[in-house]
Amino acid sequence: MEPTPEHNEKMARMTFASVYPLYLTKIEKKGRTKKELNQVIEWLTSFDEKKIKELIQEKVSFQTFFERAVLNKNAHLIKGMICGYRVEEIENQLTKKVRYLDKLVDELAKGKVMEKILRNE
Fold it and tell me: pTM of the prediction?
């Protein structure tokens, strides 16, 4: 299943600041920490904790967020289903990157060990 153009546009406009608290709530309910969440975000995007805070304060869209990111060279190893979509089959590059992040947060919440989440080969 491929996301619709409308879905892709919604992903581009959504702000990182609106989603970050949802990620945090999701992982904290499962006993994970903000530090671990930021570690996962930094692995994918190269944004350290200071930069993450700046992007939240700036209320950047996911479009801007990923334009500024330097995606990890192993991001292509993120595979599987998230929100009804198979991540590796998503053609729209921005939507794929957002779903990469969703998938990493989901794995963190599910208790996966950090080494596996970060796909360090």
Answer: 0.92
